[in-house]
């Protein structure tokens, strides 16, 4: 009898930290599966032995940018013992998932030094049928199909292995910024994909949803997120909006109910993010959970979370397809997290809310030409998992000097409640532009009905400025206006760049690079900067004259035709509200991890996530930090998450929120991890690319596993 008990304990991994040998288990899709649950049934690594985790292998791609402005945000996929991922410069590679040994690399920008690493990549797609298997990945402005065994482009797909991400978007989009930094999702032989487009006051491409044939690259269907005449939702925009407004794009992740044939698409705001006087109305299908027939693209249902968005309240993460218990019955549902720190829960087939949602009054705008929507929807359950308003009572208590400085700044801006519209005096956005919830996604544990989501509690200040209407000519009037329309959101009104060092200062640009190099970057893009092919030769010349302080000739000045701006405002950039020491202006915690019971509509627990090393040295613990990249939940009772500014990777008890294990990473793990099993061993892997929040850049993927049994 004793032998039988010992055998059972050894098998379950509950005796002496020993572990059972799991069957091979893939992580085959972005978010783990097509439902985007970020969950795994693996339990070899569990609460009793996680403290024994050690590095199994490390792979370095060797292409991190030395200036600290590269990142890796990729959630790798694992299929049949092979791991597929991307590097800081968007090279695609395959590794032996058990050893980290390199198999192949594909560089979409090989031989092109002027247009490389456009944006970031958060994942890729594996599709296979029979002996055929391919990797589908977007890089720059193209979608590639690669042979999964060799990494070589498949010549039968599109034009020698790739198709344009502007396919089907119309003539206007051909000269505009269109990328896809989050992978699409497959349904049968279709790849359904969204895009990232410009959201500034300049021209923006539409964010229409498209499905491509995975074999040929042919466009099979398209759903217009900015409706054309005769289409549902057209009456929520000005009559000609479809000809000139962009955005309403699905950039943050896609989920598919394979059984029902439904695809769930979260959309972003319409452009321009912060002034919508030229797009008056509710603006469907921006800021919506859009549900379509996956085979045809036909409309099924939608829910709009922000009407006529003025706050960049894109839906930041993939919807999670869940099964919950309500009213004594099991219901297939979809959970959507938001930047405002809410969870909305709907029946999957018809969009019926499972908890009440109330339209609440919102204040009007003070900007000329703007008409803010008078109400905004908020769920009554579950409660918000981030604080909702920044008042004097919330000002930092890190030091007396910091608190005094923050209180003084608060008196100068508009704050104190949600949905205060943008203003020229400055409006506090809280929680901030990056959440609440962010693109790392949420994890769902079906055994408990809990949704796990990390959150930011970072205030930002949005300040609007009027664009020079060019009613009087001046030496640099045209170039300055081009800069205001296209560049201020990243490089700032004063050209000093951003506080996180992602976007460099352009002050004294002539001492930093030749004008010819700057012109190539404006035209073709580089690193985090997109290309601006929509600018005419004259507009580029005038912009460079402004940036390099080159006084134009009389003939050039004469060509500046006075006119009024179509969009009368820009903004001073994305500015975190910090105290004089560089810490968030609000009291800690600045980042949290939350367990939300979707059966009851309650928060089960909430804990700070991460620590500020400088404050730990002063005896201040558990502050939480700003964080990017989501959690993974396992049957071993664990949550795995990186995400934090302190560059650590943690395993957390999913029942209590207690940290059971943590380790330092070679750079910040600003990506969602993956867990899988190969050869009877469970691994957990995370990209350590850093480069956010002022932290160093890295080029590593690090996999962890239990040591060999003694």
Summarize the structure.
The chain is mainly beta and 710 residues long. It has a five-stranded mixed β-sheet with strand order 1-35-36-37-38, with no helix packed on it. A four-stranded antiparallel β-sheet has the order 2-41-40-39, with no helix packed on it. Strands 3-4-5-6 form a four-stranded antiparallel β-sheet, with no helix packed on it.
| Major sheet attributes | 5 strands, mixed
Query: What name does CATH use for the topology of one domain?
Result: Cytochrome Bc1 Complex, Chain D, domain 2
Query: What is the CATH architecture assignment of one domain?
Result: Orthogonal Bundle
Helix content: under 10%
User: End-to-end span in angstroms?
Assistant: 24 Å
Give the class-level CATH name of one domain. Mainly Alpha
Total number of helical segments? 8
What is the fourth-level CATH superfamily of one domain? Cytochrome c-like domain
Strand content bin: 25-35%
What is the arithmetic mean of pLDDT? 91
Could you characterize the architecture of this molecule?
The structure is a single chain. The chain is mainly beta and 710 residues long. The chain is 9% helix and 28% strand. The strands form 12 sheets. Strands 1-35-36-37-38 form a 5-stranded mixed sheet, with no helix packed on it. Strands 2-41-40-39 form a 4-stranded antiparallel sheet, with no helix packed on it. It has a 4-stranded antiparallel sheet with strand order 3-4-5-6, with no helix packed on it. Helix 3 packs across helix 6 and helix 5 packs across helix 6. The longest helix is centred in the last third of the chain and has 12 residues. The relative contact order is 0.14. The N terminus is likely disordered.
